[in-house]
Amino acid sequence: DIQMTQSPSTLSASVGDRVTITCRASQSISSWLAWYQQKPGKAPKLLIYQASTLESGVPSRFSGSGSGTEFTLTISSLQPDDFATYYCQQYNNLWTFGQGTKVEIK
Amino acid sequence: EVLLVESGGGLVQPGGSLRLSCAASGFTFSGYEMNWVRQAPGRGLEWLSYISSSGDISYYADSVKGRLTVSRDNAKNSLYLQMNSLRAEDTAVYYCARVGGSGSQHVDYWGQGTLVTVSS
Q1: CB pair distance less than 8 Å for B47 and A1
Q2: What is the CA radius of gyration of chain B?
Q3: Alpha-carbon distance B88 to A22, whole Å?
Q4: pLDDT tens digits along A50-71
Q5: Which of A48, B78, B83, B113 is 20 to 30 A distant from B94 in Cα terms?
């Protein structure tokens, strides 16, 4: 099984900050990685797939990079609507989620 | 507009069974692979199962193998999850999710979820 490890688990930041979340895979997953945003009581929302492709309608302040085993999600300038929990997911071999990163207000 | 609407959740006793449904609309259901994903209260997302577009291939997470069965009825645009021998740790919100097309297996749309509570 492929394990996904996100860091940090919690991130405190202010509006306007540049935020980076890291996701590491236990083995190479090429670029088969997606990022999701989830707000309390809501379903997850797709942000990025294939490691760096922005889903239609997602603001350009979100970006993804990486390949192999190390990936990052970057929010270039944090907005009030971005305070949420973020999950990475590999889909190279079945599907596995990271444990999540909660972005909270500093 | 793509819509996925789950139903069938509720309170069930340990050892009991439940069948979840997911009604799909706004896209050609028979052309898409589907997943079930769950989220225990206050916890992260856990992938549970996959079913091919035709329904002839399915996969399961080790944690639920043998207790969950995924199926679909393309004529009714519906996805199902039969859950048996339920345990307290199966308490969660259960989401159906569409696997994106174009050769990429990421999940692109999610339902709103249905809550399953396993308790005596």
Answers
A1: no
A2: 14
A3: 32
A4: 999 999 999 999 999 999 999 9
A5: A48
